[in-house]
Amino acid sequence: MSRQANRGTESKKMSSELFTLTYGALVTQLCKDYENDEDVNKQLDKILFSNFLPRGYNIGVRLIEDFLARSNVGRCHDFRETADVIAKVAFKMYLGITPSITNWSPAGDEFSLILENNPLVDFVELPDNHSSLIYSNLLCGVLRGALEMVQMAVEAKFVQDTLKGDGVTEIRMRFIRRIEDNLPAGEE
Amino acid sequence: MRAGGARWSLPARGSRMADAVLFEFLHTEMVAELWTPDPDPGSGGPEMSPSVLESVGFRVGQALGERLPRDIPAFREELDVLKFLCKDLWVAVFQKQMDGLRTNHQGTYVLQDNSFPLLVPMASGLQYLEEAPKFLAFTCGLLCGALHTLGFQSLVTASVAALPACKFQVVIQKS
User: Fold this and answer.
1) Where is the signal peptide (chain A) (predicted)?
2) Within 10 Å of residue A177's Cβ, how many Cβ atoms?
3) What residues contact residue A2 under an 8 Å CB cut-off, 6+ apart?
4) Entry pTM
5) Are the Cβ atoms of A15 and B14 closer than 8 angstroms?
6) Residue B169 burial (CB < 10 Å; 0-12/13-18/19+)?
7) Of the partner residues B17, B30, B101, the one whose CB lies closest to the CB of residue A15
């Protein structure tokens, strides 16, 4: 019983089930917390929406350091390079999937990530009374928080979701502006 | 939102790997979000009702208790189940085995982890000792939930003398 895996700085991989189940239990709990009152129930999705984005944002702010330390990715020179790193390196590393990148805007400041199998939604179905819940919204917060730490203000949002019957899950990413170095962190 | 909803095909076990740090950060955010005095202290008395974090852990433990033992021969005795928690469950969740398992052979077990992964980044020693219980509640629920699925009612509590070591005490409730 005393054998202990010591893998040094190597990343620790685990089945994505634990993460998926934990996230699901968290969402369920929050739904339950707000279920007591009929009126509050109507606000539920809004509350969850405003709850998950900052939580995801906080995770992103911390995740980016882990990512930069382990991936040897340098500074991106344009948004296309950023898109590649997000899809092919970061998603691969943390969730074990590689979304495809499509729908570039002509100006090159918007693109879509298509997630064919979002691990967050394994085992999940949305009950009718939560049909507007943006279940995986945490991911958008993570993306926004992480990119803000590398001086990029972006908007990330779900525009399609297989949980709601769409054929694919699509996160739309929009570059807003580059954050100047001399601004204090967190200032917008 | 139902764990194990039938509409979604389950991915083959181990087919997709996530990074452990993701769970760690999510857990931290859960502690920040949910660690509050009991939201409903009126019913059942404030002392007896499990914290919100524990119930979230319980739900996850229940699901893991269903999914993990698929390759393992049926458990014959209580001790087998506790060994399962120390080996398989701990490896699935924390990528390591529990460091020690002791019992009084009367339904009380002490599971010892000398470097509990959720406490390791916090401190080595007594710093932040007061904060430690927040980071154990989810895992207490996890153990209790897994035991529940495997047919045992239990009370699970955790204690920390010095970070990052901690002990989980499992008391099996005889019916």
Assistant:
1) none
2) 11
3) B97, B99, B100
4) 0.83
5) yes
6) middle
7) B17
